[in-house]
Amino acid sequence: MALTNCKECKKEVSTEAKTCPYCGIDYPGVSNIEVIDNKNRRVGVIVLALLVFLSIYIFTRHERADSQYTEVAGISENKKADVAKVVRDANAVQSSSEQPKIIETPAKEASIPLEQSLVKTMPRPLVIQERPKQKEPALDKSNNIASADTPQIMVMRMLEYALNDGGLSHESEIQQTKLQIESLPRPAKGNKKAARTINAKGLVSLKEGDFSNAVKMFEEANKLDKSDIEVINNLGFSYLKQGNLDPAQQAITMALTMSPDRATAWENLGEVFGLKGDVSRAVACFSNAYRFSKDRLKLHQYMKKINEQEDVKNIKQARAKTINWAEKSYLNNSKNTESKVSGLSDGFKK
Is it the case that residue 337 has pLDDT exceeding 70? Predict the structure, then answer.
């Protein structure tokens, strides 16, 4: 161990001492210049090491990218080779089912992409022909009614026309729709005699208040003769009394498709809507009953009498509105007082 003088206090210290035992200075046996040189050398070594590491990283990264590119290219080539093999196998299978032929590939087809040539060898999908678009229902300019409308829709249109002031502002439209319905084919006639025999039994049950049996009888009679409007109207009225409102509406509407001016059917349909709580449509139906009644004064008396005994609030309100409307419109100018409609008070006879 060599001795030297401290650079600060000039006392003798070891050259390897890290601290002077006399003045406490760091590295007393080493000059400041040497300390700085040592530090610079350390920094230089660290910087050099970083540069070497960075160079190695960049070099190896390029190598990995090149190898990945080579692998992808190899996979792509393998895929093309596999596709080409599939094409050759497909051609071989096709040629084996036919007579041997020498297949020559024209020079022009050599430039076709491989995927397109593969598609050509595949079976063509089934061609589904699209149905021609149906034209919109033509409108008859003479009455402005769509030719595709069903009779039931036309009946509901007559009802809609009567929603505003009983239909007084749509008299022509209501009458035109009525004529349109009457011009349509009616259901084929059945065994009317047998149907009327069962219908009579149904009327007895109806008067006795046995609505379930009445419905059963009228349904059986309707199956025997779909064209009998008396039967279908009685069936609708029985459904109404039974409280089965949707079938009642359907049956009564069907009766109106066969006779759109049947006043009793319109009155019964008004009761159906009243029970459903639709006062406006009930009033429209009652208005049509007045419109098509062959004896409006007698119908008026019936409406007033039955409304005094009515328990259903909505029906009572609808009848009252219609009675008031009729007194202001139809009855003052009505000249047709001859009764051609009997049994209005029964609710199910014409």
Answer: no
Closest alpha carbon to 251 in 263, 268, 261: 268
Take residue 320 and report the two structure tokens written for it: 């009252």
Write the pLDDT tens digit of every residue in 85-94: 655 665 554 5
**CATH number of the domain that 194 lies in?**
1.25.40.10
Nearest to 277 by CA among 305, 312, 244: 312
Contact yes or no for 341/263 (Cβ under 8 A): yes
Alpha-carbon distance of 305 to 176, in angstroms, equals: 32
Domain ends where: 99, 119, 139? 119
Same domain, 290 and 185: yes
Contacts by residues 308-317 (CB-CB < 8 Å, ≥ 24 positions apart) = 312/274, 312/275, 314/274, 314/275, 314/277, 314/278, 314/279, 314/282, 315/270, 315/271, 315/274, 315/275, 315/282, 317/279
Residues 113 and 158 occupy one common structural domain = no
Give tens-digit pLDDT for 231-258.
999 999 999 999 999 999 999 999 999 9
Is 217 a domain residue? yes
The DSSP bridge partners found for residue 100 are none
Q: Which residues contact 330 (CB under 8 A, 6 or more apart)?
A: 290, 291, 296
130: helix, strand or coil: coil
Question: Count of domains in the chain?
Answer: 2
264 within 8 A of 229, measured Cβ to Cβ: no
Give the Cα separation of 221 and 133 in Å (integer): 42
Task: Please tell me the distance from the alpha carbon of residue 333 to that of residue 297, in angstroms, as a whole number.
Answer: 11
224 contacts 195 by C-beta, under 8 angstroms: yes
Domain check: are 91 and 172 in the same one?
Answer: no
Q: Record the pTM.
A: 0.56
Confidence label for 267 from pLDDT (cuts 50, 70 and 90): very high
Coil, helix or strand at residue 12:
strand
Asked whether residue 107 falls in the same domain as residue 166, the answer is no
CA gap 55, 45 in Å, rounded: 15
Number of neighbours of residue 285 by Cβ within 10 angstroms: 27
